[in-house]
């Protein structure tokens, strides 16, 4: 696993927040001080999930996702791919393979 810098913790004033890592779009979430990076690709058909009024939603079929875990409200066993995030000296790093 590689540690990929997302940015300074202080720059993320709104959660969830859209971020780019290696040119790909993700959502940074936080619950009880634990940060997670969620994929922006719907697990159903790979369509781009959008952040709409604080909700994560796939406009293709209307699936919605829990903003802290990525769990799908419509199909409970489906979820957005999560990636662990760690904090070091005020900076947030995603733990993921670079490919």
TrEMBL record:
Residues 3-94 form the Rieske domain. The keyword Manganese does not apply. It comes from the Bacteria. InterPro entries: Rieske_2Fe-2S (IPR017941), Rieske_2Fe-2S_sf (IPR036922). It holds the Pfam family Rieske. Keywords: 2Fe-2S, Iron, Iron-sulfur, Metal-binding. This is Nitrite reductase/ring-hydroxylating ferredoxin subunit. It comes from Paenibacillus qinlingensis.
């Amino acid at each position: 696993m590689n540690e990929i810098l997302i940015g300074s913790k202080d720059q993320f004033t709104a959660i969830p927040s859209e971020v780019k890592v290696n040119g790909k779009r993700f959502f940074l979430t936080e619950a009880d001080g634990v940060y997670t990076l969620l994929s922006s690709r719907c697990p159903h058909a790979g369509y781009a999930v959008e952040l709409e009024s604080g909700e994560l939603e796939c406009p293709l079929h209307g699936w919605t996702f829990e903003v802290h875990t990525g769990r799908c409200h419509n199909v409970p066993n489906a979820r957005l791919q999560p990636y662990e995030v760690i904090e070091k000296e005020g900076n947030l790093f995603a733990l993921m393979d670079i490919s």
